[in-house]
Amino acid sequence: MFRFISRFLGLWLLAGAVVAAVIDGSKSIAASRLVMTTVGEAWYQVHRNSLGLAQAALERHVSPVLWDPVVVSILFLPLAVVLLVIATLLLVFGKPRRDILSTN
């Protein structure tokens, strides 16, 4: 069951990575320069208030040190790349296992 959910989410995130890359590509062509949407920009566009709430919760309940060097650096990465990495990991973990006793 976990493999199915992992593959399902991986394929959806892979599709999201392709969509993000196409959107960034069309923006880059229109602007005649390289334009890349960061994770932070996309998060802010989806839900404006949750970014500040996530920062406050992470600093209060986990560690203030985790927010600044780790999460902030992830927020500045291109969205398509982050989605592609997560999708790849999920697809690898959800890969069907090989039957050892199979003759093929």
What does this structure look like?
With 104 residues, this protein is mostly helical. It has one domain. It is 74% helix and 0% strand. The radius of gyration is 18 Å and the shape is flat.
Question: How does the SSE layout of this entry go?
Answer:
Blueprint: H1 2-31, H2 39-46, H3 50-61, H4 64-75, H5 79-93
Mean pLDDT: 90
SSE string: HHHHH
The proportion of strand residues reads: under 5%
- Class by SSE composition: mainly alpha
Please give the count of helices. 5
Radius of gyration: 18 Å
Strands, count: 0
What is the domain total for the residues?
1
Backbone shape: flat
Q: Span from first to last CA?
A: 25 Å
Q: Largest sheet, described in full?
A: none
> Residue share in helices?
over 70%
Key phrases:
104 residues, mainly alpha
Give me a quick take on this structure.
This protein is mostly helical. It has helices spanning 2-31, 39-46, 50-61, 64-75, 79-93.
